[in-house]
Design a protein that fits this description.
Blueprint lengths: L1 E5 L6 H14 L4 E5 L5 H11 L8 H25 L3 E5 L2 H11 L4 H12 L6 E6 L2 H11 L11 H17 L4 E5 L4 H18 L1
Parallel strand pairs: 1-3, 1-4, 2-3, 4-5
The chain binds adenosine-5'-diphosphate and thymidine-5'-diphosphate.
Length: about 210
């Protein structure tokens, strides 16, 4: 089973993806947790290029292709073999990040982005995607309180993140069967309970 987590920066994806992975492991399942961009040697090198604040000359198309290259490597090298071996794969971001950030956020042609996505994943899609939705103001608030240094992507302005959030909301409307929207302003425990309920249900129907 393949599950992905999506949302704007700081929405709580990593917290929830790790919590779900740990609980599945505790219940005796084989689980693989991965983050995008990254997860293979080549993908981690591409991540460095993408997030390096010095790379201000990066064009939007290069950005799209680099995120996709990182993913193509991850799908072939890691995700497909793991799924074939019966492992539950949980990713912190996947192809919907490209649709939302490069498509809706940067304003690249959505049809073109979706074609590149299909090529990078060879059509592999998550069974469920949890979209943890927070307002952009909440992202800034969490960023302030965490005090973490920002990367190249995080240098984007508020309007960009607003478009990214709306991009996710559009995917949610287009694919209600796969894409599950959760209000990210609830507590960590409340959000986890919603996710667990869904995943536990899937495990029992498989
Ligand atoms: P992301 O992976 O989406 O960037 P993180 O899981 O790293 O998000 O969380 C970003 C910050 O918000 C962290 O400081 C985390 O402790 C905090 N956080 C996560 N979930 C919640 C929540 N439900 N309510 C309040 N703060 C949260
Ligand atoms: P990361 O530090 O992993 O951020 P987060 O904790 O918010 O997930 O950095 C990944 C950044 O790259 C983040 O700003 C989202 C962006 N991104 C894209 O723009 N397109 C993509 O396809 C992916 C996977 C990430």
């Amino acid at each position: 089973m393949f599950i992905s987590f999506e949302g704007i920066d700081g929405s709580g994806k990593t917290t929830q993806a790790k919590k779900l992975s740990a609980r599945l492991e505790d219940s005796g399942k084989k689980v693989l947790f991965l983050r995008e961009p990254g997860g293979t040697e080549i993908s981690e090198q591409i991540r460095q290029i993408l997030l390096n604040k010095k790379n201000l000359k990066m064009t939007q198309i290069s950005e799209l292709l680099l995120f996709s290259a990182s993913r193509a490597q991850l799908v072939t090298e890691v995700i497909k073999p793991a799924l074939a071996a019966g492992t539950i794969v949980i990713t912190d971001r996947f192809v919907d990040s490209t649709t939302a950030y490069q498509g809706s956020g940067r304003g690249l042609h959505i049809g073109g982005v979706k074609s590149i996505n299909a090529l990078a994943t060879s059509g592999l899609m998550p069974r469920r995607t949890f979209f943890i939705d927070i307002p952009v103001a909440e992202m800034y608030e969490r960023r302030r309180s965490s005090g973490q240094e920002i990367d190249r992507m995080e240098m984007s302005n508020e309007d960009f993140y607003q478009r990214v959030r709306e991009g996710y909301q559009e995917i949610a409307a287009d694919e209600p069967g796969r894409f599950i929207t959760i209000d990210g302003r609830q507590s960590i425990g409340e959000i986890h309970a919603i996710i667990w309920n869904e995943v536990d249900g899937l495990l029992h129907t498989d």
